[in-house]
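User: Hi! Is it possible to get a structure for several chains at once, not just one? Here's what I have:
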Amino acid sequence: MTNDAHARPSGDAPEPLYDVNVPTPTHAERARTLVSRLTTGTLCTLAADPTGYPYGSFVTVAFDNGNPVFLVSTMAEHTRNLQQDPRASLLVAEGGSDDPLANGRVTLLGLCRKVEGDSSSARASFLATHQNARYYADFRDFAFWQLQVESIRYIGGYGRMSWVEATDWYAAEPDPLASSATGVIEHMNQDHPEALLLYCKAFSKATNITAASMTGVDRYGFEMSVVIPEGRRPVRLAFDQTVATPEEVRTTLISMLQEARARLA
Amino acid sequence: MTNDAHARPSGDAPEPLYDVNVPTPTHAERARTLVSRLTTGTLCTLAADPTGYPYGSFVTVAFDNGNPVFLVSTMAEHTRNLQQDPRASLLVAEGGSDDPLANGRVTLLGLCRKVEGDSSSARASFLATHQNARYYADFRDFAFWQLQVESIRYIGGYGRMSWVEATDWYAAEPDPLASSATGVIEHMNQDHPEALLLYCKAFSKATNITAASMTGVDRYGFEMSVVIPEGRRPVRLAFDQTVATPEEVRTTLISMLQEARARLA
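Assistant: Yes, the chains can be modeled jointly so their relative placement is included. Here is the combined structure:
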């Protein structure tokens, strides 16, 4: 995994308010998590006409063990392109932030071919994600195609980007909290703002915090945006052990709160 | 302009309830309108490495007389790719519908090159759309790039797709009601459902309509989904003359209502 970032006049970067070596999802894990939550993307193929232009088309997609699966018609441009040249990539991009370039996105590159022989795994993955595709999945001109991922470009937002190794991509698992994170964050911010403040005071280096709101949670820990006299700063804290369910998050956060109160007493 | 569509067992297609020769936006106009409302897309380039894979990346975009303009860093993959090979395409895709394949999208293909010499037009177009890009527009590693559109693939949803001629693309203008259509539609459906019913009864071939709701409006006319005993059907009706503003829509709809009442009296 290599990292790169725009070289910018950074001024005096403020000292982090937390242990930056705290366990954090790898880019492979972040990328697998991102794609697990998305069902559409842009398929890039090579135009079958003499121009050979790269051709972007909108597709619905599902993932089968990390490889994108498509259900496409032989009448579609991208299918004609792939029949002539299997080189392809898929871009999937998150929405959400008002600043579009702050959102995460992943480009998966590889050869995209029609699934020959047993297509049951591709089919099951696709139809589990796109139930309403059942009605055309068996039309004669439609077939399942799969992109075999060879290289992965992950951009998590400003300054968080890398090429992910394919072995890391296939070994990584989407975050088990991916679908519940939003609910956990809303609950903590609405009902437990004092607890978030206590976590920071007990476990981070910030001594003069006046407010803290949760901005992210994953199997390894959680992130907050905290207010200190100089402005807002990020804080990340680790869970004692890897969690897999919202219930485990709840239990862990309660025991961390008890420990925080004991430390601060 | 050529049209194509999936060949499907259509059964007995119901007879249209309106004059299908009513003035309707061309695909060039629909495509120009679509892109005028969108500010992000997928840029497809050719990987500068030996694989030559088509590479999709997320970009912010603006349009300058129909040509996409980008503000990109020399550090970005797509910029490195374009420096080696200017062949590119841009996919822009609408959101909105629950069925992602029912949404409109446009692929613009052409050569994408750094704007040399006077970049004021590209710059003005881009910064008008992306105000917050002002702070990095003058960073040394950033520059404006423009894709010179050569061919255009328009997909308006199921069964509405074509290759648009470049001359038609450049001659077409985005619909003047693009930004106000949603408000007009909401207003008509909330406040004037009886008027919509009267338009259909007076100006369409539908004789047994029990409900009508507006689904679209453009410079040439408006579209409704109407309920007849057999189910829902689309109806499109023309304005007497091309309109350009919500106020002109209002005036025209009032005079059409008077005429409808006179016809039905």
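Chain B is about 30% helix and 35% strand. Residues 82 and 253 of chain B are 49 Å apart (CA to CA).

User: Great, thank you!
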